[in-house]
Each structure stands twice: as structure tokens, then as C-alpha cells.
Amino acid sequence: MTPIAPTLQAFFTDRLTRQLQASPRTIASYRDTLRLLLAFAHQRTGRQPSQLDWADLNARFISAFLEHLETDRGNGARTRNLRLTAIRSLFKYAALRHPEHAAVIAQVLSIPPKRHQKRQVTFLTATEASALINAPDTSRWEGRRDRAMLTLAIHAGLRVSELIALNCSDVVLGTGAHVRCEGKGRKQRTVPLTSPAQAVLASRLAERTGRPGDPLFVTRTARRLSRDAIEQRVATHASTARERCPSLSGKQLHPHVLRHSCAMSLLQAGVDTTVIALWLGHADVRSTQPYLHADLTIKEQALALVAPAEVKHDRYKPQDKVLAFLEAL
Questions:
Q1: What CATH architecture does domain 4-109 belong to?
Q2: pTM for the whole thing?
Q3: Active-site residue 259, yes or no?
Q4: Is 92 a known active-site residue?
Q5: Long-range contacts of 7-12 (CB under 8 A, 24+ apart)
Q6: Fewer CB near the terminus (10 Å): N or C of the chain?
Q7: Active-site residue among 178, 184, 224, 254?
Q8: Known catalytic residue: 317?
Q9: Residue 158: which residues within 8 A CB-CB, separation 6 or more?
Q10: Averaged over 7-11, what is the pLDDT?
Q11: Structural domain boundaries of the chain?
Q12: CATH class for domain 126-301?
């Protein structure tokens, strides 16, 4: 067995689990990355993972693996960079244990992430959010559960993982109503509940009648909802909501859009970005900056402050379709 095998094992058992206390999702992501890397190495070199050495995983090889992810597996730049982050973390740990391979490790650590185009944040307006919340059929048990889940996601801005992990005892109603959740990096935070969220959660808890440690959102077999299940429920109710709210037709809805919608509603209400970062559990206030770019209303207000008073400000409106057709001939 070459030196890479025990270091790889210690990276997960000692570095990630004991020292960094990484979340299960982080460990799973790093595991998947290194499985792909070792499989690629076996395909290229014919060696088993236990026979590989650090010299085999040089910068040229890692670059070829990253290229393989994009060209052969069809991964985007974001996924490529995520895989590179896991590889860099392993090599930083290896640098402490294998100084004899310092040159090879340094070359791998110098591989830069790939720049990519940042997509604009998608969010729901108040009307669209209301249509989505009212989409579930509340005459059915699943509909009442989904309505409570959608309301909490939109009003509190919780991540999918946070929704899944909620227990009945995490919801506190009455004076100072709030919900407790654990976000990325095992950071715990408390999010206040709006009046609509309090009402729907009170009904949910009364119907759930579970013990304090029982999950809040469950299947009919009393198991926690999975990430895939929540994504499927959002897609189903989005399809229903589009029939009542046509503006939803041009939007691809997924659970994280609900979190974006919470942030945009706070921003449009005049809440400071530092408070929004605390509300959402962002580690850095810079993570909140994309919402500023997505809000056209804020830009229009800024334009009104600098434009001459005699200039009339109107939002662009497309011309009549018939006239546009004639002009295009």
C-alpha cells in the first residue's frame, strides 16, 4: 500500500470528521469527488487506488481529470470548481504529512478555479408566492403539510436541509414566535415567524401531535421528507399555481427559489443587508449582494435620485404586437 492510501483514510476520519467536524453533506461531497478521481486514475493508469502515489496525481493529471468532468461527464464550471475544492482540501492535508512531495502538491494547489457566468437570482413576487402557498389541496393531509412547508420556506427563508431537519420542538409559538434551525457549518440560528407562518404552523403542530423530538414534516409512514421529495412537491404545486398566476410560467421553480423570495421581500421592505445575512444564516454579508443586483426597484429608485427633476421616469413597455410585426417585415 502506497502513502496515498493511509493519508486518504486519515483525511476523512481525522481531518474532516474529528478536526473540522464537517457536516455529513460535506463529507459525502468530498467522498464522491475522490471516488471519481480514483476511478479516473484507474482508467488512465490501470493501477488500483491502493497502488497510486502522490507523484501519479500531479497537476497535469488533476487538470486532465477536471477537463474530463466537463467534456465527458457534462459538468458545468460550478461543479468543476466544487470538485477542485475537495481535491485542494485533500492536498493541503497531504502537504503536512508528505513534505517529500511538496513540489507536486504545490503545483496541484496552484490550479485556479474556473471563472463562470453568475446567473441572476430568481425570486417570486408577493402575488406569485401567495399563489404557490395556496396551490396545495388543504382537504388532504399532504396538502396541509405542504402548505405549512411552503409558507415556512418562503417566510423564514430556510434551506431544504434545514426544513428536513426540523423537529416539532424547533417551532416556538406565542410571544416571540420563532423557529430554530441548524444551517451550514452546524451554525444554529433563530428566525422569527410572521403571523401567517404562525397560524399555519399552529395548525400543523395540532394535526401532527408528535413528540418534541419527532420530525415536523414527514411522509405518511412518519419518515422525514427527503430532498427529492420536497423538490417534487414544489414542482407539483408550481404547476398548479401557474394556472392561477400566469407570471409563474416563465420561471423555473425549485426549493432554493423560495429562500431567494424571502430575501427579496426583506430587501424590498427596506431591511438592511447585514440583517438579511443574519436572517438567512450567511457566513458573509457578501453572499447577500446578488439580491441587490436582482432588484430592479432599487435601481429605479437610485436613478430617480440622480436624474433631473423634469425628466419623467417610466419603465420600458413593449410596443403593440401588430405594429412590431409590421416593422419587422
A1: Orthogonal Bundle (1.10)
A2: 0.69
A3: yes
A4: no
A5: 7/93, 7/94, 7/97, 7/98, 8/34, 8/90, 10/93, 10/97, 11/89, 11/90, 11/93, 11/94
A6: C
A7: 184
A8: no
A9: 152, 166, 179, 181, 191, 259
A10: 93
A11: 4-109, 126-301
A12: mainly alpha
